[in-house]
Design brief:
Helix content of chain B: 25-40%
CATH class of chain A: Alpha Beta
Low-confidence stretches of chain A: 1-15, 168-184
Largest interface: A-B, 35 and 30 residues
Oligomer: heterodimer
Distance between the termini of chain A: 46 Å
Strand content of chain B: 15-25%
Distance between the termini of chain B: 15 Å
Order of helices and strands of chain B: EEHEHEHEHEHE
CATH architecture of chain A: 3-Layer(aba) Sandwich
Largest sheet of chain A: 7 strands, antiparallel
Order of helices and strands of chain A: HHHEEEHHEEEE
Largest sheet of chain B: 5 strands, parallel
Radius of gyration of chain B: 15 Å
CATH topology of chain B: Rossmann fold
CATH architecture of chain B: 3-Layer(aba) Sandwich
Strand order of the largest sheet of chain B: 3-2-4-5-6
Number of strands of chain A: 7
Number of domains of chain A: 1
Number of helices of chain A: 5
C-alpha cells in the first residue's frame, strides 16, 4: 500500500482509507465476547452455568436470534444453537416463572432476549454512538467477510456467537441512527 | 408461618399504610416480563404487564396507579425513553417511580435515561438481588412489619 504520509497531493487515498468500514476483529476480541456471554449466562441462565470455549457441530435444526447494531460499526450480533438447546435455555431463563408448557413464542422470545442482552453489552464495547435494533429470530442473516465467531459448549451442546459486519446490507435505520432517541 | 400468628402486612416507606404495592412491568419480551414480574411478585408486589410504552401509558390512563414502573428501553411502537418522558410530562403521574431495565449499558444512555426522568437504571443481565438492591435504594422494598 502507498504510504499515506507520502505527501504527493490529495489523490483521495487518505480519505478512502479513513472511510473504510471498521472491521469487527479490530474492535473486540473473542475473549471479551466470551466474557460478555458468560456474564449473561451466569445472571440469566444460572449462577453455576458455565460456557466452555470449544467448537462443536451445530445440529441441522439450528435456530438463530440476533440484534442489529447500527453505528460506526454496523452489523449483527447473532446467537445460534439447536432447537432443543433453545428450549432448554428459555426454560432456564424463566426458571420458576416458566409455564408448565413452553410454547414456540416463549422459546423464540427467550432466545431473542439472550441475543438482546449479549448484543447490548457488545455494543457498549464498540465505538459509539450506536443504536441497538430489536431482537429477531429465525435463519441468521448471511455473514460477509467481517466476522468474529466464538464457539461455545453449554451443557455439552454447541452454540455460537457471531459478530458479523454488514457493508450496508442491513435495512431500516441507516438514515435515522437516533431512532430511539427523544430530545432531553 | 405458624398457626395463630398474625399475618405480616406489607408497608412501603413512601406509601405508609398501603397494603398493596403495585408495579407495572413494560417489556416487549414476554419472557423478560415474566422474569421481572416474578421477582417483584416474590417481593410482595401486585404486578401488571404491558408489551410496549404505548400499552404502558394505556394502563396508566386506565386508572392503574403503580408505585413502580419497570420499563425496557428498546421496544416497538413506543420505546422506554419516550415512555419515561411521557410519564414525566404528566403531573398526575409524578408519584410514580420509574426504573429502566435494559441491555443499553453505555454510560451516555444511562445519563440520558436519568435526565429524562428515570429514577434508577438496571442493566441486563441482572439478578433478582440487583433488582432488590435498587428497590431498597429507592425505598420501595416492601418490608414485613408486625401489627
Amino acid at each position: 500500500m502507498t504510504s499515506l504520509a507520502s505527501g504527493y497531493g490529495d489523490t483521495g487515498e487518505r480519505r478512502r482509507t479513513e472511510d473504510a468500514p471498521l472491521e469487527i476483529t479490530a474492535l473486540i476480541d473473542e475473549e471479551t465476547v466470551q466474557s460478555i456471554v458468560q456474564e449473561a449466562w451466569s445472571a440469566l441462565i444460572g449462577e453455576d452455568e458455565f460456557l466452555v470455549p470449544l467448537p462443536g457441530g451445530l445440529p441441522d435444526d439450528a435456530v438463530s436470534s440476533w440484534v442489529e447494531v447500527l453505528g460506526p460499526w454496523t452489523g449483527a450480533v447473532v446467537l445460534t444453537c439447536g432447537r432443543t438447546t433453545a428450549e432448554e435455555l428459555s426454560r432456564c431463563l424463566l426458571a420458576e416463572h416458566a409455564p408448565p408448557v413452553l410454547d414456540a413464542e416463549d422459546v423464540a422470545d427467550g432466545l431473542g432476549e439472550l441475543a438482546n442482552v449479549v448484543g447490548g453489552n457488545v455494543k457498549a464495547v464498540l465505538p459509539g454512538p450506536s443504536v441497538l435494533g430489536l431482537p429477531e429470530v429465525g435463519s441468521a442473516p448471511a455473514a460477509g467477510p467481517d466476522v468474529l465467531r466464538v464457539d461455545l459448549l453449554w451443557r455439552g451442546r454447541s452454540l455460537t456467537i457471531t459478530l458479523q459486519g454488514s457493508a450496508g446490507a442491513l435495512t431500516g435505520h441507516q438514515n435515522d441512527p437516533h431512532k430511539n432517541e427523544v430530545p432531553l | 408461618m405458624g398457626a395463630g400468628r398474625r399475618r405480616p402486612q406489607l408497608r412501603l416507606p413512601p406509601a405508609e399504610g398501603k397494603l398493596n404495592v403495585r408495579a407495572l412491568v413494560i417489556d416487549d419480551s414476554r419472557v423478560m416480563r415474566r422474569i421481572v414480574a416474578g421477582i417483584l411478585e416474590d417481593l410482595g408486589y401486585e404486578v401488571q404487564q404491558a408489551g410496549h410504552g404505548r400499552e404502558g401509558l394505556d394502563v396508566l390512563e386506565g386508572g392503574y396507579e403503580p408505585d413502580l414502573v419497570c420499563v425496557d428501553w428498546n421496544m416497538p411502537v413506543m420505546d422506554g425513553l419516550q415512555f419515561v418522558s411521557a410519564v414525566r410530562s404528566n403531573p398526575a403521574w409524578r408519584q410514580v417511580t420509574l426504573m429502566m431495565v435494559t441491555s443499553e449499558s453505555e454510560h451516555g444512555q444511562i445519563v440520558r435515561a436519568l435526565a429524562a426522568g428515570a429514577h434508577e437504571y438496571v442493566i441486563k443481565p441482572f439478578t433478582a438481588d440487583a433488582i432488590r438492591d435498587k428497590l431498597a435504594l429507592l425505598g420501595l422494598l416492601p418490608q414485613e412489619v408486625s401489627l
